[in-house]
Each structure stands twice: as structure tokens, then as C-alpha cells.
Fold these 4 entries.
Entry 1:
Amino acid sequence: MVKYPLITDSYNPYRDNVQGKANEPITVAGLLDRSKQVLGKSYEGSVPDWTLDEIYDRLENNAPRIAIIGGSSDHPAHIMDFQTSSRAAIRIWENGGVPFYFSTPVMCDGTAQSNQGMSYSLQSRNAVAQMIVNQLESHNYHGAFVIQGCDKQPLGVVSGLAHLDRLRQERGETPFIATFAPAHVLQGGTIPDDLWGELEEVAERAVAQGYSDIADDLNDAMAYILQCSSNTSFQGVFERAVAHEVMSFEEHKYFEKRLAVNTCDGAGGVCAFNGTGNSSRHIVAGFGLVHPELELLTEAPSQDVINAALDSFEVMLNKKEFGVSNLVAANIRNGIRIHSSSGGSTNLMMHIVAAMLYGGYQFSLQDLNKLHNECKIPDLFNYSLTEDRDIYQLAMQCCDSSSRGMESLFYELLQNDVPMDVHALTVEGRTWMERLEKKQGLSAENVKKNRIILSKPRRAFSGVDVLKVTSLIPLL
């Protein structure tokens, strides 16, 4: 077990003013009491010693105040937050820190796409960033353990933390450090055998009635893993089938319900397709902000894994080079090239720019495009939702040690002559070069079945190009 150093700032509002020491000890004790209760028999900590007196003394002496930042439990990615935050709180206390907890709203793009909420999707990144800065400044925390969710939350938190870190350093205070713990990957659902047979009957009925296009589209939807987006595909086919009297409206609603309730695993997680949630996972790891033990999991992280990430704070505390804004800037090429090679959500282009701007850097979409085009980025991501190569499969490969996730992709980009910033630091307390010295499970060739990260490119180039209008032709 490590022991965190005290914060070296001469400024400590908890020492210089009694209000925080009067208000906050009960919140810390409450968090730790609740954490022990949540963990129950799986609690691995020592005999509880979090008295109000001890909490007061740690605040007085400027022990690191670490915020555990969760999400909202109305999003599937955050169902297991209470277990993860409980393990984190216990470890922060054991290491000599003072744990706190708060959470941010996390809108689900899949849910919001069917209502007015989709108008708020992109804006939610800035809203999350603002809430992050407000809360961390209000209670004057030194670092964060971030339970990384889905959609716009990850880069919203990165942006807020980068901004706060820049503010702290400009004021001459200790840098703000953070490590991200991405929510585990949610296994895609499976269509029950009896339902599969019933859907095949509908396809046969459609062909018999002269609507082979409906049958083709239904079979195409059935080929995908079951998830909210494939449910939408089914819904479109069902509506056409009802309109052409291939099925009744009652059949439509029956099939819709059967598919919906078999879609998501009860333990939640980030959906297995390579959308905003998982492409955010890849790029935040590329920024060096994710401890490798936490990057790609199939279930909520164990105490040992969380310990590994939080123990690294011992190395990072009080050191400017580990401040969030500095890590993002040092790894900006790495993040862009990992995103280019692995594909995924194109709206990450905007969020990458935002993270740099929030961190105090002059950076534009054209700057991103320039870095993207400095060299040819090969397509090294053999992802498929119909051929058993989704992100859940990648997580399984990482859990059985045959792959190292973004470390493996980083390595294979180097092997394909893509210049990567190997000397950039990461939240493990080491550079990428130091991390890659361990060869076990590093090469893509270690995976023998359903290989997702490749050593030989599918295509010679990959990524998103930024287009711009160079001239306007006047209308006659």
C-alpha cells in the first residue's frame, strides 16, 4: 500500500478557514460508511478508522482531497457506479487521502434520439464541463477518479478538468490530476431462439406476399448484435411490414417488446458498438488518462484493479507534468492517431478540439486536420457488429491478456511506421515507451480468433478528413 504525499501548496482553505472542516467531515465519513456497507463481504479494507477527528486532521494538514466523479444511474453505463465508487473511496482513504463523491448527469444518446432531448446532446458536453469546474472549485479538490461513461460525458469531463488544471497552474497552485476508469463494456443482447423462429416466419411471409425487400431488411437487422440501434432498424422494418399488411400492429408491438427486454445486460456498461462511448474510451486512453488495468473490462472493476490506478497518484501528486491539461497536450498526436486508426464516432473531432481549448491551448479543427494528415494513418481496427468482432469481444481479449487494447494499437501503429509520441507521460506514472517495454500480450498477433486490432492494415489510410469551402460562386 502506498501513502500519498501531502499537497505542497501554501494555500489550504481547509486549514485557514474552519467552515470546510465543520461541514465536510460528515460527508467523508458518510461516504466511507456507505462504501463499506455497499461492499459487504467483499470489503477488503482495514479496520475502519475514519473518525471525524482524523478527517479533520487530514483536511488541516492538506492531505490530497480526491473527488470520485460518477455519472447518473439513469444511464446504462453507470449502473455499477456505487460499487466502483465504494472501492475507490476505501483505497483513497487507505492511501492517506480524503475521498469525496459527486456525479454529473449523463444523457443517453440512444434514448434522446427519439425525443427533443437530442437537441441537447452536443450541448451537454459544455454543461458537464461547467458542472465539473464549479464543483471542484467550490470544494477545492486536488484530483479526481473519474468513472467514465458514454456519449458526451467523457470529453465533457476531460474538458472541465483540463480547464481547471490550467486555472490552478496559472494561479501558482498545484496541478489538478485525474485518472479515468471507463465503465465496462455492455455485452450485446441475443435474440431468443423462439423469437428468432418467429421473425424468420415473418420474412418468409413477406417474400410470399411479394415484399422481398422487407424480408431482406429484416434478415439484415437480425444479423447484428442486439442493441438499441438495431432495435431501431427492426422498428423501421416492422412499420413497413404493418403498412403492407405483412404483419399486424399487435405483432409489431409484441416483437418490439421481446427484442427490447432482451437488449441490455442487467449489469449495464457502455454499449458494445464503436460509437461515441467506445471511441471516447479509445481517445481518452490515447490521451494517457486511463490506467491500462482499467481500460477495457467486461464487468465492474475489482478492488485490485482500482487500487492499481489510485496508487499511481503517489507519483503524480504535486507534479506539473501530470496535470490534466499537460497530459492532453503531450498526447494530442497520440489521441488523434488512435482515433483515426480505430474509427468510431465522428463527433469526437469537435470534442478533441474542445479539450485542447478548455486546456488553454490555441487549437482548431484545422490544427487537428493538419496533425491527422502529417502522415498516413492505416486502418488497424477490424471491427464488425455482424461477425463477432464488437468492442465486447475486444474487452474479452484484454481480460484474457491476449490483447492490451490501446497499448496494442499504439504498438501496431509504431510497427506500421506511424510516428507516435512515445515519451509522453500517462497516468500510470510512466511514458508510453516504458509501458511498451512489457511485451506480453502487446502484439496484435497474440489474438488468434476474432482479431479486432490488426498488425497488417485493412486499408492504407483511415480517419476523418476536414473539408472546407475555398471559394463561393455568385448566384446569377
Entry 2:
Amino acid sequence: MVIDRSQPGTEASWAGGGILCPLYAWRYPEAVMALATHGMREYPALLESLDTPTDAERQVTGMQILDPVGPGESAKGVGEWLDRFGMRHEWLSGGDFPELLLPDVANVRNPRLLLALSEAAESEGITIHAHCAADRLRLDGNRVTGVITTEGAWAADQVVIAAGAWSEALTPDARRGSVFPVRGQMLRLEPRQENRLERILMEAGTYLIPRRDGSVVIGSTVEYAGFDKHIDSTAQAALHATACRLWPSLTGAAITHRWAGLRPGSADEIPILGAHPHIEGLWLNTGGFRNGLAMAPASASLLSDLMHGRSPALDPTPYRVGRILSD
């Protein structure tokens, strides 16, 4: 059973860009890269397994990074990090300002991916309760026994908190500020078909993502604004200006959508994934920040292995829940 305060798949997973690779991957902790690289490799098989008419529109476009080497970094160091995680890469220019191509990077049309996942879940007999907020857990001593919601209470032997930026409020003993919202603003443009963008472009954290229909998604801001999803005209104008500079064919293109979402951040940028150490039957999967979608298949596999007592493919230690709990 899935309980969702809104429509399932319409928060951070829906609002992101759908790039199946960490941005500037060499700047993330190894624990993030371990999940992301496993997740990236698992996507084709995952999508093939979904019994649904909805196409998630995964496409391998590659990603061209115009400013891959930042202060204190070197092209050699970036290359060694990518080699370590098996990420094929090409340097497109030399000198002091090289550009980097990651040719195997794919993206999905994430709203359609979430729809496909919901359809597949329901076809497998999983009940989805939309617009049903979880108020609190039902506990019997140090064991979870269910969830109390706005539509009543349900009994359960195992409960997974996967509420994104809202996870902290549902987690017993969670330290204040352990999981927090990080707003990201986006927009979508419809350029002329003859000027199609063929690969993801990125510079200074702003990215341009080509969709199959020729539209281009632009993102994203990183704003610590609490639980506020308002779009800001100044931030939107800056994203648009950068996009037009990076791909001049976007100049004059119609802006069809503007939106914002709330990513679930954590202090160390590492997901919180595993068993609650003090409450039997309670599990967490949250804190994916900007890479939740890329990590999702591997995160789900790891959590499933832990819940079933199987030996996981990845070391679960870096993601342990205890690190976000009060002393």
C-alpha cells in the first residue's frame, strides 16, 4: 500500500529535470556515486519490466559540461574520479578551460516515468491512496504497528517513510533540520523543430535538457526557502537568459511552463536509507536531494534487500538512519 498526501509522484520526482546522472559527479560523496552509478545501469531493465502503456521517454543524449574543472580541481582528477565509477568521458577541448562530454548520460521525462510506475504498481495489486496524508505512526512500544492518516488508520508490520522533504516530521527522534526542503525552479521552452538541441548542456549548475518532442527543460535553482514552492520572476529570468546564451536557438522560443519543486536535502548530501535503529519495522528512504531519480533503482534494491534480510550489493553503512536522530 502507498499512502500519499497528494497525487503520487507529483512532488520532487515530478519537478526535477529527469537527468539520470549526478551533476558534476566528482563533487559528490562516494556514497552518492555508488547508488547513482548502480541506478543508472539498472534503468533500462527497470523500464522494460513495467507493464504499462506509458512511455517514460528515456533517451541517451549525453551531457556536455562547459565548465567541468572548478577551483582546486584538475582535468586529471576529474577523469580519475569518473574512471573510478566506470563513467565513460571525453574531453572536447584542451587548455585551461576544457569541456567534458559524458556520452552515456540519459534522461527521462520524469512526470511520465512516475505515471508509468504508478500504473505498474496498481497492475501488480498495490493499493495507492492519493490525497491521504499520514499524520503519524502507530507505535506499540518500540515497534511500528501502522499509520494514522486523514482517512483513518491502517495496520502494518513494516512501514517505509519516503515522504521526501516532509520525512523528518514523520520520523520519531529525528533531529531538527535533518531533512529539509531545497527549492528548485524550472521552465520549459518550445523552440522551432529545425533547431533541436541534441544533448544536455550544462554550465554553472544550469542545465538544458532536450525532450523527444523537441522541447527543452531548463533548470535549476538551489534555494533554501522552506516549504515554499512559489516561482520567482528574477530567478526565472536568470535561468532563461543563461539558457539562451548557451543555446541561442532558444531566443524567442515560447515558454510553455514554469514550476518549482522541493528536494529533500540532508546535511551531508547522503540519502537516509535503512532501518530505524530504535523502532522495529520502521524504515526510511529519503534525502536524495538532487539525485533521487538517478539513485532510485539502486536505493529501492538496497532497501528491499535489507527489509528481506538479503545481503545487499552495496554497503548500507553510509546511509544509516541513526546519523539523523537526536542523541
Entry 3:
Amino acid sequence: MKAIIYMGLITTILSLIGCSGKNNETDKDTEGFNGQIAQSIEDFKNRTIYTKLTEEIIKSTSDDNLLQAVFDNLTEKLPEDYNKEFEIVAAWNESRQAIYMIWVLEAEVNNGGYNQFYFNSGGQFYKKLPKALQLVGAIRFADLTQRANGMFEIHNEKIKEHQDGSLEGFSESYEENPLNDLDTEFYGLYELEDLQQIQVGYIRANKEEFIDK
């Protein structure tokens, strides 16, 4: 699960690097930006992880950090045996399920597309995700993921024919994969729906769903 958390951070950093390349024209600017990245990683590693969320913590946590705080809290509720991940998550209320599953979806798709999402353990949540996205108000992402699910189910056998457990086989599964075009749609949707802020707004409006009794 730590891999999923770090994937989210790495995706954010790469995005920042891409945006900054147009402005950092001098070595000094680049050095300063690299320093900011290093500090961001250090801050992330040393962040406070709340095993018990309270109303006060949610209220006092900034929008930039709230989603991470809630996700960290949820991962603390998971057993060390991740074979029981689906069972545990399914027992949570719908709000907690939604935030957890959306995070997993984003981390996987932003790292390796829908193909990677369905291939890895996060794919076990695929049928629940359209409803989860609708719940928080991410309607466009919900529609796209519903279409991806349908495509995955139709082409499942073909998509998986190269996935023999090897890295080479997994790489080959991207060739002529019908899900590839949906990855491009997914990345483009961020310009139309701020998925992080949508979730933050949902958490603040339904904070009682995330408070540990």
C-alpha cells in the first residue's frame, strides 16, 4: 500500500516538473526547484498520520493536505494481510470506501493507465468505482470509468493474453489495448473536474462520515 501512496506523490512531482520546465531557464532556477521537490518529499515522509480522525483535525487541516490525511487514516485501518483488503474496505461506510477507492484508481491510472489499474489489486474495486465517483460528485470521471469497465469486460481475454506475470508480458499488453485512448481522456478530465477539490469538498460536507468514534 505504501507503493500506492508514493505513486500519488511521484505523479504530482512529475506534473510540477513538466509545468516548471518552461520557466526554469537558468541553473539557479533549476537548483531551487529541485530543492523544493526534495523538501516536498521530506515533508511527505515526515507527515503526521492520524490513526484517529476527529472533527477538529478535519477542520484544522488545509485543503491541500486533507485528502492525504483521510487516506492515511483509512490505510491505518487495513490489516497487514492485504488479501483481506476488499473485505475490510467493503465493510466501511460508502464515504470512506469512495475516498479510498478513488485514491487507488488515480494512483494506478496516472502511473500506468487503466490497464495497470485492472491488472493490479486495485482492480478488485472496479465495479464499485463509478458509484463512488458519483457519490463525491465527480460525474465525468464516473462516466469515463463506467465506460472503461465496460471495455475491460468486453476485451478482458484479449487484454490479459500477454499478462503472464513477466514485465515483458505486461508491457506487451499495452499494444493495441482499447483502454489506451481512455487514459488520454482521464488525464484531460482534470481540466474539467478538479478531482482533489471535489473530494475535499465532499469530506468537509460529510465530515461525520470520516470521524473515528
Entry 4:
Amino acid sequence: MALTPETEAQILRHHHAERWPIGTIATQLNLHRDSVARVIAQAGLPTLGTVHRPSAIDPYLPFILETLTQYPRLRASRLYDMVKDRGYPGRPDHFRHLIARHRPRPKSEAYLRLRTLPGEQMQIDWGHFGHLDIGRAHRPLMGFVAVLSWSRQIFLRFYLGAHMENFLRGHVGAMTAWGGCPRIALYDNLKSAVLERHGAVIRFHPTLLALSGHYHFDPRPVAVARGNEKGRVERAIRYIRDAFFAGRTFTSVEDLNAQADAWVLGRAGERRCPEDETLTVSDAFAQEKERLLALPGDAFPTDEIKAVSAGKTPYVRFDLNDYSIPHTCVARTLTVAANPKDVRILDGSSVIASHPRSYDRREQIELPEHIATLVAHKHQASAHRGTDHLIKAVPASRELLTQATERGEPLGRTVRALTEMLATYGVAELEAAITEALAREVPHPNAVRLALERRRQANDTPPPIAITLPDHVKHRDVPVRPHNLNDYDHLMETDDDQC
């Protein structure tokens, strides 16, 4: 068990100032005597009132100390195996207590206090603030935090995820809120900033380099395991957790960001500036703002661009949800351009659909005209299929349908009525009735039906019985027109002549 610095100081005071023996200290502080002895030994002071007794580990101490100096974090179990191979006769549990006394304590590292000039540097990092449940989606709530190193002015913006696009939006929002850009930006080893690192060699994300070129700042990563180099943003995130986020209620991310803006300008801006305690952060920022670089005329683009494939249904999937598109754009590759509020779908450079963005999961976001157009197209296609089948069976129906359409009659209803008559009366009777209706210049299904009834009564035949067949059988049974046999006689005559 690791002892606290307060306990170690108490052990040393009782032993060297009050001259308590190790056993008494262990009893009074409810510790193991080996723990007390280890603290005294690691302090580099001789124990009072103790006599050094020979130990089996003494011949191996030079080797042990040399090994621990070279590998201070080497496990006692591995060191025991190394010493045992060299002849140590002791047990591993006792050896572990002995090694704890001789293991060197880590040296405390001293750091220089880093100072910057006004307008020189900003420090940037992400903070994780739990998750939000939006419908069926469970999304992380991330806080983008940027701090001006001299005035300690904070920019805080919350996003649903630490994506690269949100990283860029945070930069643009910070520099827009500050009205300028510092000359240097410090980053931790974020994936959004550093793609690869080998020692001192850094490969920055190309999009971040494009952003820095647009705003003319120099991106710099901190050294590995050197959190003190960006301690201003680390302390700002801790300050945000304690002074702003703790116990706060909000209805949406937009509401939370509005509260964050008010807090940054109010309570956070009223605290004292560490660089000049006679100034508040807001006063110091007013002075630093004059030293910032001017912003370019246009903002850096931060839309999320993604190629998506549209299948057979008029939807494309983006960020866990489906967005509708015109039915004429199915079965092709499209492009989605999204910002925090809107999702635009492009075919080449043309915008074919625009939707409000949803952060739910498995939701269908539709435009009513997309679905209505598809339904109308399906109905029209169904009418065309029925028209083709009718014309193939009864060629005379083509003229009747043409004239009926010119007179404003609905094509689909006319086709359905003639198709029912075809199934009831047959091909020959329907063709004759259509010819009669055209001769009377009445291209209407009712005229055809009256003609069929007159022909039936004239022939003195009973009313036909309609036979209802399944749709797949109706479409499969295509009428076959008999061939003229005179053509075969002509072929036979030609063969006789050749003989």
C-alpha cells in the first residue's frame, strides 16, 4: 500500500525527533513495521537504536543497486529470479520487502514557469463531459476549449463528438469570438492535430495545416509527457468542470452553448488575470485583442463532406440516419455536405435535397414532395404497363386510348375498364366493340361497354361470367395471334417449282 506524503513525514518526525523505535511507530500509526523501516531507509537517514545484522542479501546488494539504478521500475519478481540464478538462497516474499527498502525513489522534476507575450499563443484541447441520449442515439458530449495564454480568455463550445469537422468549427468559432488569431497554437497529441510522431519528427493532419495556412498561425505540439507546457488549457478545463458544468441543467446543446457564452463573458471574465493581478481576464483580453493577427475576409470551410451511395430506395444514410432524395437519383454515388444544423445532398455540383440535421438514430428524414413524386411515378408506371398489355392484345385500343387522352379522360381508369372488358368478353368481341365506338366518335369505355352488350343481345348469348385470375397469371398469359396459313402454301409451291 502506498503511503501518503503526510504519513511519511509523520514517520520521520516520530523516529528522528521523538526517537520512537520502529515498532512503536508501526503500532501507533497502525502500519506494518516493514513499511515504517522502508520509509526511514528511503529517506537516506540511519535508523536510531538499531544494529545492522548480516543478511543473506548483503553479497548481492551491489548487483541489485546497480540493476535498480539502470531499471528503476523493474519488478521484484524478475529481480528475484536474476538474483536466485546467482545463488541467493532466500524466499521471494522476504526478498520483496528487502527490495522495497533499497528501490530508489523517483526524483521530483522542477519546471520553469512559462511566460508568453500578449497575442503570442493559444492552447487548445478537448474535454469529455459525459454522454447525451437523443432519441435512440447515445452520443458523447465534448467540450472544445481554447485559451489565450496571456490573458487567460476562454472560448468554450460543446459538440456531439470530437470529429475533425467539430475541431475545425471550434477554431473558427474561437477566432471569430476573439476578433483575431494568435501567432502560435499549442496542441496535445490529439488525433485531429498529429497524425504521426517519431521522436522530434511530427506529421500534422493536412486539414489542420490548411486551417493554419488560412489564418496564418503556427501549429505546435507539446513534448511527450510534458503536460505543463499546456497547463493553461488543462487548468481551464478543470475550472470549467467545477465552476460551470457541475450541477448545470440544459435542454439542448444549443442551450448549453448559449449558457457557456454568457458564463465566459460574465463569471469567467471577472476572475483575476494571473499575468497581472491588477487586471481581470476581460480587461487583459481587451489589451491582448489589439495584438492578435487580423482575420481573413472569408471563414475556413467546416462542412463535413462525405460520399454516399444511394440504393434502390430514395434515401441516403448519413450519421446513423436516412435522408430522402428524389427518386430519379437512386442507384448512384452522391455527396453529403453537412453542418451542425443542415444536411445538403449534392449530385455533382447541384443540390438535390436539403434537410434539417438529426442526431437521433435510425430515423427517416423525408421531404413530402420526394415521396409524393415517387408514388405518382409508380402509379403512372403501373398505367403504362397496363396500356402496353392492352395494346398488344387489342391493337385497335391504341387509337381509342389516344383520343380518350386528348379529350381529358384519365388514362389509368380507361385502361383498367378496357382490361376488365378484355377478361370478360375476349379479344375478338372487345376489338369489334372498340371499332364500333371509334366509328361513332365516342372514345369512352362506356361506349365500348354498350357496343359489347348490343353484340351479345344480337347474338342471343348469355351474359359472360367474369373469371378473376391472379395478377401474375394475367401478365403471364399473353394472347397469341394465329398465323395466316396461306404463307405455308406459298412456301410449298416454291419448293415444287425448284424440284
